[in-house]
Design a protein that fits this description.
Blueprint: E1 14-18, H1 30-47, E2 53-59, H2 62-75, E3 84-88, H3 94-98, E4 104-109, H4 119-128, H5 131-139, E5 149-153, H6 159-162, E6 168-173, H7 187-209, H8 228-232, H9 256-260, E7 270-273, E8 277-281, E9 290-295, H10 310-330, E10 336-341, E11 351-355, H11 366-373, E12 377-379, H12 380-390, H13 397-405, H14 421-433
Parallel strand pairs: 1-2, 1-4, 2-3, 4-6
Antiparallel strand pairs: 5-6, 7-8, 8-9, 9-11, 10-11, 10-12
Helix pairs in contact: 1-2, 1-7, 10-12
The chain binds a DNA duplex through residues 249-252, 254, 283-284, 345-346, 362, 364-367, 405, 420-422.
DNA sequence: GTTCTAGAAC
DNA sequence: GTTCTAGAAC
């Protein structure tokens, strides 16, 4: 057979198709489920105004469709109708039936990660073939966590891929309230877990849509339930899936999980977070106090900022100022700067809030030093100014990279060309011990 | 971003 | 001989 041209390729919109979660097999009350689902979607759409995606609820339960429709109408405000659509249909035949291609679809799965326990996953199993459960098992040998998402690629030769254009199924372990099925949870627990499910579903979609991978949490450090009955059973072999490597050049992506799921990190890593930002301790602080204030929304780096992001930058600045105030209470001797590196190493825009002592074993080389003490470091005010006046940011890469190699000068006195880093450290100690 | 290490600098 | 840096690997 010859290759079909991409006949319906006029749009490059990336779509997520998902069913009403937990309302059929999970027996979760439909009205509340619709409320929770719509709230999460609204929050997501408010946070992400990219034009490259659409969300589509596709179900054949008319009660669920109606509940979502009326709830959405009630809360959507001025959000674009196309961004979230509600359709009657079968998730596996969306293109066939409705002419809509969803690159990603969502299906519920039980915490045992078995595909044969609900209608949709059974259908997927039947369509893709018996190799598919093996693949799911290979990727996720451990029990799933309720509320978490587990993306799996659809084989390229499957008709789901060739005919429907589905590239991945995001399996979600959704809460179950049906007492005749395993691990039923109370309504109150289920409410939180359903919200968590929708949130992780959106996070997974966001990562996949942006060409990254989504890494579900497999080992829980927090207080969420872990499904012990299965993991303690002797049938479970000792093979554990190593935590996924962060892909090629993965080190650059380490900040993403803090934005996606700040709640799973211990207090020692994440200081605090809200819907808009997360504040973490720099893993390798270059001074006595060194924090990162990061927007939750994905912004790769400073050059992606536009004038409209001034509002966001000002909010980050406010957060940073609060933190400085707190840290000054602990140690009034400290001075602070907050700002951005002209050229970031790590992906995801992050604002450094760093004390100016620079006394830290992690400050090891010229690059470290120059990145915080030359004009490579851009105070947040400067970024604000550039955005206000110019509307965009573009820094000359070669110039700034050279700056990192320039000679080591003291940031407090006129001592220039300090011979090496150990000498610098001695010099800094002298400043610190003054007065 | 860090770690590792060859070889430059002392 | 030891210290330190710089560049590759991760």
């Amino acid at each position: 057979m010859d290759k079909r041209p991409n006949d319906i390729q006029q749009t490059s919109i990336i779509r997520l198709g998902f069913p009403s979660i937990s309302t059929s097999f999970g027996e979760f009350p439909i009205d509340i489920a619709a409320e929770i689902g719509c709230e999460v979607i609204k929050e997501f759409l408010n946070l992400h105004n990219e034009t490259d995606f659409e969300l589509i609820l596709i179900d054949n339960d008319t009660k669920a469709l109606n509940a979502f429709e009326s709830k959405w109408k009630e809360i959507k405000n001025d959000l674009d109708d196309l961004k979230f659509q509600i359709k009657n249909g079968n998730l596996l035949q969306i293109k066939d039936e409705l002419g809509i291609e969803c690159r990603y679809i969502v299906a519920e799965i039980t915490w045992r990660m078995k595909l044969n326990t609900n209608h949709l996953s059974k259908q997927i199993l039947n369509t893709v073939g018996s190799k598919f459960p093996e693949e799911v098992k290979r990727l996720y040998p451990n029990p799933g966590i309720v509320g978490e998402s587990y993306p799996v690629s659809i084989p390229k030769d499957s008709i789901l891929h060739t005919d429907e254009g589905i590239e991945q199924v995001i399996f979600v372990v959704s809460p179950n309230m049906n007492p005749s099925r395993s691990n039923p949870v109370s309504f109150n627990e289920a409410k939180d877990l359903l919200k968590k499910t929708y949130n992780s579903m959106m996070n997974a979609f966001l990562e996949l849509k942006n060409g990254r991978e989504y890494y579900p949490v497999t080992i829980k450090k927090g207080n969420l339930q872990v499904n012990k009955p299965f993991s303690t059973s002797s049938s479970q072999s000792s093979l554990k899936r190593p935590l996924p490597k962060l892909g090629g050049g993965g080190w650059a992506n380490v900040l993403f999980p803090y934005c996606q799921q700040p709640e799973i990190f211990p207090k020692s890593e994440v200081y605090c977070y809200d819907d808009e930002s997360v504040i973490i301790y720099d893993k390798y602080p270059k001074a006595k106090k060194h924090l990162l204030v990061i927007p939750r929304k994905h912004i790769d780096n400073i050059e992606e900022l536009k004038k409209k992001d001034l509002e966001l930058i000002r909010k980050l600045k406010e957060k940073g100022q609060e933190m400085i105030k707190k840290m000054k209470q602990d140690n009034p001797k400290l001075d602070f700067r907050m700002g951005f590196h002209a050229i970031q190493s790590l992906k995801q825009l992050h604002m450094h809030v760093i004390s100016q002592d620079f006394i830290s074993p992690n400050l090891k080389n010229k690059k470290h030093w120059n990145s915080f003490t030359t004009e490579f470091f851009k105070d947040v005010e400067e970024i604000e100014k550039i955005l206000e006046e110019q509307g965009f940011i573009k820094f000359d890469k070669a110039y700034y990279e050279n700056l990192l190699k320039s000679s080591v000068n003291c940031h407090l006195c006129n001592m220039k060309s300090i011979k090496n880093i150990p000498n610098l450290k001695e010099h800094l100690k002298d400043h610190w011990n003054e007065d």
